[in-house]
Specification:
Distance between the termini: 36 Å
Number of helices: 5
Strand content: 15-25%
CATH class of the largest domain: Alpha Beta
Radius of gyration: 18 Å
Oligomer: single chain
CATH topology of the largest domain: GMP Synthetase, Chain A, domain 3
Shape: elongated
Structural class: alpha+beta
Helix content: 40-55%
CATH superfamily of the largest domain: K homology (KH) domain
Number of strands: 6
């Protein structure tokens, strides 16, 4: 998705308007990411109010910003909102969990099923393990119960 014709200053104003309702003191910066996404970085004293339980509020903010941007620019805009580095920390944790679990599966030759994750988190795990020939991953379940099974390769 090409976001080169997107005015990131407008996206910053949208984010400021939206976050003013949650934390008026939050500082917001926007930058065009190398992956084509517009990164909205939120720095707040009370980041938990913006992140929410398991990142749910942050995902809702991201969704609302995407809807607002789609309306403003009349096309899809890939936006990734993060608060106080939460997403990066979460990605690193998921990558470590994936590698550690895959190593256990490879050693024990037994399937291990991870806890439920949203689609973004499952994608991080699948991508981290995509190049491993000794294991296989698959998503199972429906909705909020959907999880990843890591099993020995056949």
């Amino acid at each position: 998705m090409d976001n080169s014709k997107v005015d990131i200053k407008k996206i910053k104003k949208m984010a400021q308007w939206l976050l003013e309702k949650i934390d008026p003191a939050a500082e917001i910066s926007t930058v065009a990411g190398t992956d084509g996404a517009v990164k909205v970085e939120i720095n707040a004293a009370d980041a938990q109010a913006i992140i929410g339980q398991n990142g749910e509020t942050l995902r809702a903010i991201t969704h609302l910003l995407r809807v607002m941007a789609r309306k403003e620019f009349a096309r899809e805009v890939l936006i990734e909102a993060d608060a106080n580095g939460y997403l990066e920390k979460r990605k690193n944790y998921l990558r470590q969990l994936a590698v550690s679990t895959a190593n256990d599966v490879s050693l024990l030759k037994k399937e291990i099923v991870l806890p439920p994750m949203n689609s973004y988190e499952r994608r991080v795990v699948h991508m981290e393990l995509a190049d491993r020939a000794d294991i296989a991953t698959e998503s199972r379940g429906e909705g909020i119960s959907r999880r990843i099974a890591i099993k020995p390769a056949e």
